[in-house]
Amino acid sequence: NNYGVSVREQGFIAFLAEHYPEIEIVERIESFEDPQITYGRTAALLRAQPDLRGIYITCGGAAQVGRALRESGRAAAIRVLSFEDYPEIVELIREGVIDCTLAGEIQRQGELPVQIIMDALLFGKKPQAAQIFTETRILVKESLF
Predict the structure, then answer these.
(1) Where on the phi/psi map is residue 50: left (φ > 0), alpha (ψ -120 to 50), or beta?
(2) Is 122 in a helix, a strand, or coil?
């Protein structure tokens, strides 16, 4: 239901198809950002796919995915990519459960639209550009302090 998440997913699928056609996406889990659904469906996926080698988390639920991975004993064997740098994600990176996350200045993403709207309504000021991008940082265990 989220446009940004949908773009992430479709971009990932297209990238794999073009550059890594040998990689098979075995399942797509829709969790509706519900922690119980995320955990339950991830645990079921891990049981059903003994050869699973990677998980791509497009939105929330990293803590529940991490829990399912740790409980399965497969956290070290499965590569995990996620988004943002919430404290639970940073901790999972430190533990070696998540391998990489793309952090996109989430606070700025929330502040910027409000600032643009306020500037337009109060001062008649138009945005500097049709699209405004926030900085994206790639975080791995070695880059954490």
Answers:
(1) alpha
(2) helix
